[in-house]
């Protein structure tokens, strides 16, 4: 009898694909289903919560999913609730509600909206790269969208009620920087052939991200973000500007890596297509090919880029010495206790 039960548990593990809580026990709806200590576990987690199909779910269903997760935590869920139902409810809740403060996120700002929006924006930038006016319009739309996404996926622990004009500041500064970069790179590459000219959109996107994200999350830098002695610990020992800069830098790198394969490889592929007869007879085929390649690239790269760094990342306490005042506060907070090997922080997305 014991062997039969053990075999049944093993089958359940294989069926659930290595979920964090693989046994018949209840899942923890406040934690990822997969271990965040490995790249593969993080990849599965981000593929789970960035599923673009969730944006088609009505708002009422999203609130119902959140309510079901809250009921499940206190043991008040329906008796006939199945494991797959609570996992799907968790998926909807994690994709639509901010993990720090639980606020409902606008559809445009969710990571699950990244695929359709990025496909449209990337296709537009790769199509209208020849026109300075078209490039500026694309960058205006792109950086406005990025500003909204960056604000939506901030570390909300640094929020204060008087924060109202951050989006306007970030939009103006990031858009200006991105457009200046686009026109500058366009002029730089203008005499170097069509292929080099098609790399201009990526340079503009990279420059925009480098400016946009820090401006949108400037409050985290000026006020610091909470750091913890233990991972998943709820007790904040202090706020750190060093951790904020490190976390935002990781997010900037993630966004650039996310866009790089599509925006760099698609121009090369379409350039190689041009000598062939099927392309010369059907030049209109370039747009659907670009859209298809862009969708495929982002489908892979969104979870792949987000998974590079854990959302709750770590750093050595010695890094706080960059800001001596912070390290002094850290020493006071620790007192006579042994210094940990790492301190942890939420970098946001």
TrEMBL record:
It is a multi-pass membrane protein. Residues 11-24 have a biased composition (Basic and acidic residues). This is Sidoreflexin. PANTHER family: SIDEROFLEXIN, SIDEROFLEXIN-2. Keywords: Amino-acid transport, Membrane, Mitochondrion, Transmembrane, Transmembrane helix, Transport. Belongs to the sideroflexin family. The keyword Transmembrane applies. The keyword Membrane applies. The lineage of its organism: Eukaryota, Metazoa, Ecdysozoa, Arthropoda, Hexapoda. One of its GO terms (molecular function) is monoatomic ion transmembrane transporter activity. GO terms for cellular component: mitochondrial inner membrane. It comes from the Eukaryota. It comes from Lasius platythorax.
């Amino acid at each position: 009898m014991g062997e039969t039960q053990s075999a049944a548990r093993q089958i359940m593990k294989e069926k659930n694909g290595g979920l964090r809580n693989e046994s018949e026990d209840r899942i923890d709806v406040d934690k990822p289903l997969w271990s965040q200590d490995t790249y593969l576990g993080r990849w599965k987690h981000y593929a789970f919560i960035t599923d673009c199909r969730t944006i088609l779910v009505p708002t009422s269903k999203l609130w119902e999913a959140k309510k079901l997760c809250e009921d499940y935590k206190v043991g008040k869920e329906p008796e006939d609730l199945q494991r797959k139902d609570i996992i799907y409810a968790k998926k909807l809740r994690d994709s639509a509600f901010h993990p720090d403060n639980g606020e409902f996120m606008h559809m445009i700002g969710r990571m699950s909206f990244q695929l359709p929006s990025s496909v449209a924006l990337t296709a537009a930038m790769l199509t209208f790269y020849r026109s300075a006016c078209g490039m500026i319009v694309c960058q205006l739309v792109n950086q406005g969208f990025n500003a909204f996404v960056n604000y939506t996926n901030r570390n909300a622990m640094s929020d204060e009620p008087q924060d109202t004009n951050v989006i306007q500041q970030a939009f103006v500064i990031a858009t200006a920087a991105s457009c200046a970069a686009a026109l500058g790179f366009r002029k730089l590459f203008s005499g170097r052939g069509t292929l080099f000219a098609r790399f201009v959109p990526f340079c503009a996107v990279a420059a925009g991200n480098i400016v946009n994200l820090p401006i949108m999350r400037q409050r985290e830098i000026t006020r610091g973000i909470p750091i913890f002695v233990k991972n998943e610990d709820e007790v904040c020992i202090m706020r750190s500007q060093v951790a904020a800069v490190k976390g935002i830098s990781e997010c900037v790198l993630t966004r650039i890596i996310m866009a790089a394969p599509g925006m760099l490889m698609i121009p090369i592929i379409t350039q190689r297509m041009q000598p062939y007869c099927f392309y010369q007879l059907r030049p209109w085929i370039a747009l659907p090919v670009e859209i298809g390649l862009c969708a495929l690239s982002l489908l892979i790269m969104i979870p792949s880029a987000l998974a590079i760094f854990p959302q709750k990342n770590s750093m050595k306490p010695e890094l706080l010495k960059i800001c001596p005042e912070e390290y002094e506060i850290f020493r006071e907070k620790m007192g006579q206790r042994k210094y940990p090997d790492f301190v942890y922080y939420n970098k946001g997305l």
